[in-house]
Amino acid sequence: FIHPSHPNLSSITGNSSNNIHSKHNPNTMGKAKKTRKFAVAKKMMSPKDTRVRENFEKAKQKEEAEKKKAEPRQIEQANSALFFQYNTQLGPPYNVLVDTNFINFSIRKKLDMVRAMMDCLLAKCTPCITDCVMGELEKLGGKYKIALRLAKDDRFERIPCNCKGCYADDCITNLVKQWKCFIVATCDKELRGRIRKIPGVPCMYISGYKYTIERMPEAFGAPR
Asked: Could you give the CA distance from residue 27 to residue 150 in angstroms, rounded to a whole number?
């Protein structure tokens, strides 16, 4: 029991009133103690996440680019038959690689292929046909029966090719790149454009009712 005249009575009552006010006042509340969490797994990014996949793809592309840089470059060997753009391997009797549309247009214009070639080049010519061109003619059906019969003529030389498909344009370009002893006969503008990029390979086509040839100055029979 404390006497009312005790000097510390006012200080005790004051502190108790302050404590009561502080409990009810929300602004003066103290921080709650946080208990430490044990055995809680960290949040992991799933491997299927787009961000992870993008980074993986970028790293893969970078590795491929570095591998390509490390690989030795393959440079095509220059052909010894070429003197600048002039092909020294070409000479009579000329071997002429024939395309499907060239045979069809020759039949339409009523041209004897061997005779017209000889009139153009003023030398003996051997028309050559690859397996791919023959396959294309067989696929075209009955409409091109005459062209197929003409391709099977004894005067035509059959050239075997090891092509997987049956696309004649690719077959002819690959054959001409490998062997520079052929003249390509075609009326297809795309194929002529591809052959123009290959140095030393002349291209024969039909103009009017005659055969003409480009990039071959010694063809005196070709119309200028």
From this structure: 106
Question: Pairing relation of β-strands 125-130 and 94-98?
Answer: parallel
Exposure string (b/e) for 129-140, b if CB count within 10 Å is 16 or more? bbbbbbbbbeee
Length of the chain: 224
The angle formed by the CA atoms of residues 24, 26 and 31, to the nearest 5 degrees, is 110
Full-model pTM: 0.66
One pLDDT digit (tens) per residue for the chain, 224 residues: 445 555 554 554 555 444 444 444 555 556 666 776 666 666 777 766 767 777 788 888 999 999 888 888 777 777 788 887 788 888 899 999 999 999 999 999 999 999 999 999 999 999 999 999 999 999 988 888 999 999 999 999 999 988 877 689 999 999 999 888 999 999 999 999 999 999 889 999 999 899 999 988 888 888 76
* Residue with the two structure tokens 């790149």: 177
Cα torsion angle, 84, 94, 192, 164, sign: negative
